[in-house]
Amino acid sequence: MGLVLGLAAATLAMDTTTPTDARSADVGPPAAGGGRAAPATFYGRAFDTCQAPPVDTMRRWLASDYGAVGVYFGGRGRACAKQKHLSREWLSKVDDLGWRVLPVYVGSQSPCVVAKNKQHVRIGSDPWKQGTQEGADAVERAGDMGIRPESPLYLDMEAYRYKQRDCAKDTLSFVRAWNREVRSHDYVPGFYSSANSGVTHMDQARRDGVRDLPSVMWFARWHTDPDLNGEPALGRDAWQPNSRIHQYAGNVTERHGGRTVTIDRNLVDAPVATLG
To answer: Tens digit of pLDDT for each residue in 200-216?
Structure first.
């Protein structure tokens, strides 16, 4: 996933325009009732890795402290676009083993994305339309994988130079459109990014009253202790309760049950997929 940049503080460029009938910011998981079920949530350790491991590795990793796994199920920006093992059957089998799943969609990236290997998939000239289209793609792919509505879909937006006004505006427009489309199909939109870029940007948008923001915040701040509630980029009461994931280490190698995998480490208190 993303890079963690140096601490920044600035007034951010915000796209506060909203098409007719836009939904509210919806910061936090949907409440039960009102015709919409609350998503299943998980508290504990999770890992994510570029290539979904074989089922046998997932079985052996039951010996670890991890209880959930992040999988890259779609998006044109995936580093591991050709998943050797990930399928509807794979998800069913790991679910039967007791694993909880965090579905990650790596779509188009910010026009001012930092990583050179993501610059070929930058957002184009119509970010709202593109975000809507990619949100629909995420929903379709999730359904094909047996990821049911009320599940979260996490949009991966790698670190970007959010203090560039026009770039920030286009990125926010894309994210909001993606969120709105995902919500319209009764999935829960989550957002992954660097704490000091995309996450700071989203929290400023929240404080400015911008609509159609993510319901769950997955923030990357490496080389720190796992901490869901002390993240300085987030307002204390924002994305609470059961709406945060802290990615606190990345590109580390672990071995469990005789199988070695390079992973990112996460602490989770957030929605997980319902499969079937």
So the answer is: 999 999 999 999 999 99
